[in-house]
Amino acid sequence: MLEYRLLKRGVKLMSIQPRLIQRCKFKTEQSIFDFSGSGLTSDVLSLDYMGASEFEWGAVPKSLDRILKNLDHYQVYNVDEVVDLSGRPMMVLCQTELSDSVKTAALGLALGEYWLQERSELPDYIQGEDDIGEKVDTNFWWDIEHDYFIFFDNQELVLASLYNSRKKHYPKKLFEKREKVEPWVRKRLSKLKNPQ
């Protein structure tokens, strides 16, 4: 069904099949100026309890670790076909080379077209309420298998927290391009620089 709709609209079919979507919500309405800087999951997001074992055993920290290691290849993209009740377009933060697939997956999630391990509440958020008329608190979605985020607001806060987390938890040398120099080469070079 989704494939037919996307083909009809001229959207390229994707290779990403979302299954493990972690529901989250921003802790408070905070701005980039009052962000204390500890990190995404500690200061900015509150993670919902998902109830399935696939979300346990360090799945979220492993996904965050992969995102932080590749953060230089991540970018925010708008999915203009989907807007929330405030008129804000859906945004995805994903790796640049996967942007088309992730945007298509996000569109499918917004349409409620996937069989997920646990409910995402994304279609409910877009409509403003769930099936029984309750307001939906979830406003951030994290695919912990394919390492991308979906949100509608607070782009600067998300990016600042990710860069701060990377700076805090990873040594700088991990992100610098350096050639590995074998110890015997280093020893010979030091002899050439300092002849005795």
Number of helices: 7
Structural class label: alpha+beta
**Biggest sheet descriptor:** 6 strands, antiparallel
Count of strand segments:
6
Q: How large a portion of the residues is in β-strands, by DSSP E?
A: 15-25%
What level of helicity do the residues show? 25-40%
Tell me the strand order in the biggest sheet: 2-1-5-6-4-3
Q: How would you describe this structure to a colleague?
A:
This protein is α+β, with helices and mostly antiparallel strands. The chain has one domain (2-193). It has helices spanning 2-9, 40-44, 59-69, 99-111, 122-127, 155-169, 183-193; strands spanning 21-26, 45-47, 74-83, 89-95, 140-143, 148-151. It is 35% helix and 17% strand. Strands 2-1-5-6-4-3 form a six-stranded antiparallel sheet, sandwiched between helices.
What attributes does this structure have?
17% strand, disordered N terminus, 196 residues, single chain, globular, alpha+beta, 6 strands
Question: How would you summarize what this structure contains?
Answer:
This protein is α+β, with helices and mostly antiparallel strands and 196 residues long. The protein has 7 helices and 6 strands. It has helices at 2-9, 40-44, 59-69, 99-111, 122-127, 155-169, 183-193; strands spanning 21-26, 45-47, 74-83, 89-95, 140-143, 148-151.
List the helices and strands and how they pair.
Layout: H1 2-9, E1 21-26, H2 40-44, E2 45-47, H3 59-69, E3 74-83, E4 89-95, H4 99-111, H5 122-127, E5 140-143, E6 148-151, H6 155-169, H7 183-193
Antiparallel strand pairs: 1-2, 1-5, 3-4, 4-6, 5-6
